[in-house]
Amino acid sequence: MAKGRKGLVTAQIQSTARLARTELAARLLAHGFYAGQDQIMMALGEEDGLTPGQLALRLGVRPPTVTKTINRLQAQGFVEKGASQTDARVAHVSLTEAGRAAIEEIARSVKKTEKAALRGLDKKERKTLHKLLRRVEANLAGGAPADEIDDGDDPSGEDA
What's the CA gap between 142 and 126, in Å, rounded? Predict the structure, then answer.
């Protein structure tokens, strides 16, 4: 590899991720959401009533980050915290009616961003890209060998 080209793939991944986050953030802001809030909302949309610790674990972030975001979402009226039925020291986070309604807007924003990112790629290219990105993710996470990763469906949910 040429001397000036080392790290080219890493730089490209970082640039692409930054652009995707920026575009998604702009779409989410139009609905009153800030960066990172969408992930908590979507996690609660999949399983309501999680604890902040469970959310942090699922999202791969530190608990204080989740707590700060939950507090902001609560102030915005999208989530509420309630004590556990079995342990009063534990709080469970649940979506409010406004939060459940907002899930659709978040999902639309994510879908539009993904559609923009994958514009011009056919179904086979999308599937290959998804498979390669999952392999890179697994490599960096020290997880399952790449050949053990379930490819799943087309990541865009579209037939190209």
Answer: 24
Token code pair at residue 12: 């490209």
pLDDT tens digits, one per residue of 98-134: 999 999 999 999 999 999 999 999 999 999 999 999 9
Beta bridge partners of 83: 91
The pLDDT tens digits of the residues spanning 86-102 come to 888 889 999 999 999 99
Give, as one character, the DSSP assignment of residue 90: -
The answer to whether 52 and 91 are in contact (CB under 8 A) is: yes
Angle at 44 between CA 54 and CA 138, to 5 degrees: 60
Q: Tokens 């179904």 — which residue?
A: 123
The verdict on pTM exceeding 0.85 is no
How many whole angstroms separate alpha carbon 19 and alpha carbon 15? 6
